Amino acid sequence: MISFGLVSIPVKLYSTGESAAGIQFNMLHKKCGSRLRQQYFCPVDNEVVGREDMVKGYEYSKNQYVLFTEEELKALVPEPTNAVEITEFVPLERVDPVYYEKSYYLGPDKGGDRPYLLLAEAMKRTGRAALARYSARGKDQFVLLRPYAGGLVMQQLRYSDELRSFDEVPVGSAEVKEPELKLAIQLIEQIATDQFKPEEYEDKQRQQVRSLIERKVQGEEITAAPVEAPKAQVIDLMAALKASLAAAGSASAAAPPVSLADRKPARRSPREAEPAPAVETAKKKSSKR
Question: Do 98 and 138 have their domain in common?
Protein backbone atom coordinates (compact mmCIF):
# COMPACT_ATOMS: atom_id res chain seq x y z
CA MET A 1 0.00 0.00 0.00
CA ILE A 2 1.53 3.33 -1.08
CA SER A 3 0.83 6.06 1.46
CA PHE A 4 0.65 9.41 -0.36
CA GLY A 5 -0.53 12.10 2.06
CA LEU A 6 -4.02 10.97 3.05
CA VAL A 7 -4.28 8.85 -0.10
CA SER A 8 -3.65 5.09 0.04
CA ILE A 9 -2.90 3.22 -3.19
CA PRO A 10 -3.06 -0.60 -3.19
CA VAL A 11 -0.25 -2.01 -5.35
CA LYS A 12 1.51 -5.24 -6.23
CA LEU A 13 5.24 -5.78 -6.78
CA TYR A 14 6.58 -7.53 -9.88
CA SER A 15 10.10 -8.56 -10.76
CA THR A 16 11.76 -6.54 -13.54
CA GLY A 17 14.10 -9.35 -14.62
CA GLU A 18 13.82 -12.80 -16.11
CA SER A 19 15.06 -15.36 -13.60
CA ALA A 20 15.90 -17.83 -16.37
CA ALA A 21 18.16 -15.37 -18.20
CA GLY A 22 21.36 -16.57 -16.55
CA ILE A 23 23.07 -19.89 -17.20
CA GLN A 24 23.43 -22.00 -14.08
CA PHE A 25 25.74 -24.98 -13.60
CA ASN A 26 25.17 -27.57 -10.86
CA MET A 27 27.77 -29.41 -8.82
CA LEU A 28 27.71 -33.17 -9.57
CA HIS A 29 29.53 -36.24 -8.32
CA LYS A 30 32.19 -36.98 -10.92
CA LYS A 31 31.88 -40.72 -10.28
CA CYS A 32 28.13 -41.20 -10.85
CA GLY A 33 26.88 -37.85 -12.15
CA SER A 34 24.43 -37.32 -9.28
CA ARG A 35 23.72 -33.81 -8.03
CA LEU A 36 25.48 -33.00 -4.75
CA ARG A 37 23.86 -31.64 -1.60
CA GLN A 38 25.45 -28.99 0.57
CA GLN A 39 26.29 -29.92 4.16
CA TYR A 40 27.69 -28.04 7.15
CA PHE A 41 30.80 -29.51 8.74
CA CYS A 42 32.23 -28.80 12.20
CA PRO A 43 36.05 -28.95 12.07
CA VAL A 44 36.32 -29.09 15.90
CA ASP A 45 34.12 -32.17 16.37
CA ASN A 46 34.96 -33.52 12.91
CA GLU A 47 31.34 -34.23 12.02
CA VAL A 48 28.53 -33.14 9.73
CA VAL A 49 26.02 -30.92 11.56
CA GLY A 50 22.31 -31.22 10.86
CA ARG A 51 19.84 -28.35 10.80
CA GLU A 52 18.40 -29.33 14.17
CA ASP A 53 21.81 -28.79 15.83
CA MET A 54 22.49 -25.34 14.35
CA VAL A 55 22.18 -21.99 16.10
CA LYS A 56 22.89 -18.49 14.85
CA GLY A 57 25.44 -16.20 16.43
CA TYR A 58 27.00 -12.77 15.94
CA GLU A 59 30.80 -12.36 15.97
CA TYR A 60 31.36 -9.32 18.21
CA SER A 61 35.16 -9.85 18.30
CA LYS A 62 37.65 -12.24 16.73
CA ASN A 63 36.28 -15.79 17.23
CA GLN A 64 33.93 -14.54 19.95
CA TYR A 65 30.22 -15.10 19.33
CA VAL A 66 27.00 -14.28 21.10
CA LEU A 67 24.27 -16.86 20.43
CA PHE A 68 20.60 -16.19 19.73
CA THR A 69 17.53 -18.37 20.01
CA GLU A 70 14.80 -18.39 17.36
CA GLU A 71 12.58 -16.25 19.60
CA GLU A 72 15.36 -13.69 20.10
CA LEU A 73 16.04 -13.56 16.35
CA LYS A 74 12.38 -12.82 15.69
CA ALA A 75 12.59 -9.91 18.13
CA LEU A 76 15.56 -8.49 16.20
CA VAL A 77 13.77 -8.53 12.84
CA PRO A 78 11.22 -5.75 12.29
CA GLU A 79 7.72 -6.81 11.41
CA PRO A 80 7.12 -6.49 7.65
CA THR A 81 4.59 -3.85 6.68
CA ASN A 82 2.44 -3.35 3.63
CA ALA A 83 2.89 0.43 3.77
CA VAL A 84 5.29 2.21 1.41
CA GLU A 85 5.35 5.60 3.11
CA ILE A 86 6.36 8.47 0.83
CA THR A 87 8.42 11.00 2.81
CA GLU A 88 9.36 13.56 0.14
CA PHE A 89 9.57 14.27 -3.58
CA VAL A 90 12.87 15.16 -5.25
CA PRO A 91 13.93 15.94 -8.85
CA LEU A 92 14.70 12.56 -10.43
CA GLU A 93 17.94 13.78 -12.00
CA ARG A 94 19.26 14.69 -8.54
CA VAL A 95 19.33 11.04 -7.46
CA ASP A 96 22.59 9.51 -8.64
CA PRO A 97 22.04 6.00 -10.13
CA VAL A 98 24.98 4.77 -8.04
CA TYR A 99 22.46 4.49 -5.19
CA TYR A 100 20.25 2.10 -7.18
CA GLU A 101 20.37 -1.50 -6.01
CA LYS A 102 17.31 -3.39 -7.29
CA SER A 103 14.21 -2.45 -9.20
CA TYR A 104 10.62 -3.70 -9.14
CA TYR A 105 7.61 -2.90 -11.25
CA LEU A 106 4.66 -1.55 -9.30
CA GLY A 107 1.16 -2.30 -10.56
CA PRO A 108 -2.18 -1.23 -9.12
CA ASP A 109 -4.06 -3.75 -7.03
CA LYS A 110 -7.85 -4.04 -6.96
CA GLY A 111 -9.45 -0.61 -6.70
CA GLY A 112 -6.16 1.26 -7.05
CA ASP A 113 -6.11 2.09 -10.77
CA ARG A 114 -7.21 5.71 -10.51
CA PRO A 115 -4.95 6.94 -7.65
CA TYR A 116 -2.08 4.87 -9.07
CA LEU A 117 -2.30 6.57 -12.48
CA LEU A 118 -2.81 9.94 -10.82
CA LEU A 119 0.42 9.62 -8.83
CA ALA A 120 2.37 8.37 -11.86
CA GLU A 121 1.16 11.24 -14.08
CA ALA A 122 1.75 13.86 -11.38
CA MET A 123 5.36 12.75 -10.90
CA LYS A 124 5.88 12.59 -14.66
CA ARG A 125 4.69 16.18 -15.15
CA THR A 126 6.69 17.56 -12.25
CA GLY A 127 9.84 15.58 -13.12
CA ARG A 128 10.06 14.40 -9.54
CA ALA A 129 10.46 11.02 -7.87
CA ALA A 130 9.23 9.92 -4.46
CA LEU A 131 11.52 8.82 -1.66
CA ALA A 132 9.85 6.31 0.63
CA ARG A 133 10.44 3.65 3.29
CA TYR A 134 8.95 0.28 4.08
CA SER A 135 9.90 -2.81 6.08
CA ALA A 136 10.59 -6.06 4.23
CA ARG A 137 12.98 -9.02 4.39
CA GLY A 138 14.22 -8.05 7.85
CA LYS A 139 15.29 -4.56 6.84
CA ASP A 140 13.95 -1.03 6.83
CA GLN A 141 14.03 -0.48 3.07
CA PHE A 142 14.92 2.87 1.50
CA VAL A 143 13.23 3.13 -1.91
CA LEU A 144 12.48 5.53 -4.73
CA LEU A 145 9.29 5.53 -6.80
CA ARG A 146 9.48 6.97 -10.31
CA PRO A 147 7.21 7.06 -13.37
CA TYR A 148 7.99 4.46 -16.01
CA ALA A 149 6.18 3.36 -19.19
CA GLY A 150 2.80 4.67 -18.10
CA GLY A 151 3.17 3.28 -14.57
CA LEU A 152 5.58 3.18 -11.65
CA VAL A 153 8.90 1.54 -10.85
CA MET A 154 10.24 1.11 -7.33
CA GLN A 155 14.03 1.35 -7.02
CA GLN A 156 15.54 -0.12 -3.89
CA LEU A 157 18.25 2.30 -2.79
CA ARG A 158 21.40 1.93 -0.77
CA TYR A 159 21.72 3.99 2.37
CA SER A 160 24.52 6.54 2.29
CA ASP A 161 26.58 4.54 4.81
CA GLU A 162 26.24 1.45 2.56
CA LEU A 163 27.89 3.23 -0.37
CA ARG A 164 31.66 3.10 -0.55
CA SER A 165 33.42 6.40 -1.11
CA PHE A 166 35.02 7.01 -4.49
CA ASP A 167 38.04 8.26 -2.55
CA GLU A 168 38.97 4.59 -2.15
CA VAL A 169 39.54 4.39 -5.92
CA PRO A 170 43.15 5.28 -6.79
CA VAL A 171 43.17 7.94 -9.51
CA GLY A 172 46.52 9.46 -10.47
CA SER A 173 47.08 13.07 -11.44
CA ALA A 174 47.52 13.98 -15.09
CA GLU A 175 47.11 17.05 -17.28
CA VAL A 176 44.14 17.10 -19.65
CA LYS A 177 45.33 19.00 -22.73
CA GLU A 178 42.83 21.07 -24.66
CA PRO A 179 43.66 19.63 -28.15
CA GLU A 180 43.23 16.08 -26.80
CA LEU A 181 39.99 17.08 -25.08
CA LYS A 182 38.60 18.53 -28.32
CA LEU A 183 39.43 15.33 -30.21
CA ALA A 184 37.86 13.19 -27.47
CA ILE A 185 34.67 15.30 -27.59
CA GLN A 186 34.64 15.01 -31.38
CA LEU A 187 34.94 11.23 -31.14
CA ILE A 188 32.05 11.11 -28.63
CA GLU A 189 29.85 13.26 -30.87
CA GLN A 190 30.72 11.18 -33.93
CA ILE A 191 29.21 8.01 -32.50
CA ALA A 192 26.60 9.63 -30.23
CA THR A 193 22.83 9.17 -30.43
CA ASP A 194 20.00 10.90 -28.59
CA GLN A 195 18.08 7.72 -27.73
CA PHE A 196 18.90 4.88 -25.36
CA LYS A 197 17.97 1.65 -27.13
CA PRO A 198 18.96 -1.32 -24.97
CA GLU A 199 17.20 -3.74 -27.33
CA GLU A 200 20.07 -3.21 -29.79
CA TYR A 201 22.46 -4.84 -27.34
CA GLU A 202 22.51 -8.50 -26.39
CA ASP A 203 24.63 -10.79 -24.26
CA LYS A 204 26.85 -12.38 -26.91
CA GLN A 205 28.79 -14.31 -24.29
CA ARG A 206 25.60 -15.96 -23.00
CA GLN A 207 24.54 -16.86 -26.54
CA GLN A 208 27.93 -18.40 -27.21
CA VAL A 209 27.78 -20.43 -23.99
CA ARG A 210 24.26 -21.67 -24.83
CA SER A 211 25.46 -22.68 -28.30
CA LEU A 212 28.42 -24.59 -26.86
CA ILE A 213 26.20 -26.29 -24.28
CA GLU A 214 23.79 -27.37 -27.02
CA ARG A 215 26.67 -28.84 -29.02
CA LYS A 216 27.86 -30.66 -25.90
CA VAL A 217 24.33 -32.05 -25.36
CA GLN A 218 24.39 -33.33 -28.94
CA GLY A 219 27.60 -35.25 -28.16
CA GLU A 220 30.17 -32.90 -29.69
CA GLU A 221 33.47 -32.07 -28.07
CA ILE A 222 33.97 -28.37 -27.37
CA THR A 223 37.21 -26.46 -26.97
CA ALA A 224 38.02 -22.96 -25.78
CA ALA A 225 38.37 -20.31 -28.48
CA PRO A 226 41.82 -18.71 -28.76
CA VAL A 227 42.13 -15.60 -26.60
CA GLU A 228 43.22 -12.44 -28.39
CA ALA A 229 46.52 -11.10 -27.08
CA PRO A 230 46.21 -7.81 -25.17
CA LYS A 231 47.07 -4.73 -27.17
CA ALA A 232 50.13 -2.70 -26.38
CA GLN A 233 49.78 0.28 -24.06
CA VAL A 234 48.81 3.51 -25.80
CA ILE A 235 51.66 6.02 -25.58
CA ASP A 236 50.70 8.71 -28.10
CA LEU A 237 47.21 9.77 -26.99
CA MET A 238 46.72 12.27 -29.82
CA ALA A 239 47.59 9.65 -32.44
CA ALA A 240 45.21 7.16 -30.84
CA LEU A 241 42.35 9.69 -30.83
CA LYS A 242 42.93 10.62 -34.48
CA ALA A 243 43.05 6.96 -35.48
CA SER A 244 39.82 6.33 -33.56
CA LEU A 245 38.10 9.20 -35.38
CA ALA A 246 39.27 7.88 -38.73
CA ALA A 247 38.13 4.33 -37.91
CA ALA A 248 34.74 5.54 -36.71
CA GLY A 249 34.32 7.63 -39.86
CA SER A 250 35.21 4.69 -42.10
CA ALA A 251 32.81 2.37 -40.28
CA SER A 252 30.04 4.93 -40.58
CA ALA A 253 30.60 5.37 -44.31
CA ALA A 254 30.72 1.62 -44.96
CA ALA A 255 27.60 0.79 -42.95
CA PRO A 256 24.22 0.32 -44.72
CA PRO A 257 21.69 3.17 -44.45
CA VAL A 258 19.56 1.30 -41.89
CA SER A 259 22.50 0.90 -39.50
CA LEU A 260 22.51 2.82 -36.27
CA ALA A 261 26.12 3.86 -36.88
CA ASP A 262 25.16 5.42 -40.25
CA ARG A 263 22.72 7.89 -38.73
CA LYS A 264 24.10 11.40 -38.32
CA PRO A 265 23.85 12.39 -34.67
CA ALA A 266 21.61 15.33 -33.91
CA ARG A 267 23.16 18.44 -32.44
CA ARG A 268 22.17 18.50 -28.79
CA SER A 269 21.87 21.49 -26.50
CA PRO A 270 24.11 21.79 -23.41
CA ARG A 271 21.24 20.90 -21.06
CA GLU A 272 20.72 17.63 -22.88
CA ALA A 273 24.24 16.39 -22.21
CA GLU A 274 23.17 13.88 -19.58
CA PRO A 275 25.04 10.78 -18.28
CA ALA A 276 22.77 8.27 -20.07
CA PRO A 277 24.11 8.89 -23.62
CA ALA A 278 27.67 8.66 -22.27
CA VAL A 279 26.90 5.22 -20.86
CA GLU A 280 25.51 4.15 -24.22
CA THR A 281 28.62 5.47 -25.95
CA ALA A 282 30.84 3.43 -23.69
CA LYS A 283 28.80 0.31 -24.49
CA LYS A 284 28.98 0.97 -28.23
CA LYS A 285 32.75 1.43 -28.11
CA SER A 286 33.02 -1.84 -26.21
CA SER A 287 30.86 -3.69 -28.74
CA LYS A 288 32.88 -2.31 -31.68
CA ARG A 289 36.05 -3.70 -30.14
Answer: yes
